[in-house]
Amino acid sequence: MNYKKTENFKFVQNKKCEYFPCHKGVKKEDFNCLFCFCPLYMLGDKCGGNYIINSGIKDCTNCTIPHSKGGYDYIMTKMEEVVKKASDF
Q1: How many domains does the chain have?
Q2: Which of 21, 40, 74, 84 is least surrounded, with the fewest CB atoms within 10 Å of its CB?
Q3: C-alpha dist (Å) from residue 54 to 23, 25, 57, 66, 79
């Protein structure tokens, strides 16, 4: 069987979402909804994103990593850390 290499699984868009697009700074046509909730949130200050601490809570409003081109690949490079942290619970 001849399988074509595709990367379509890395991009999903939900234009019907009442929050679309939920972060500023990414063109609508490039906005990726695949990671609606960022799996790197639990890494705290090791996530690599643009976040602030607001009243003791991590606020990722200004982070566009999960929603930008290349975001999927970046997140996948950090998933080993996520799995390790999750296994520590």
Answers
A1: 1
A2: 84
A3: 17, 20, 5, 20, 25
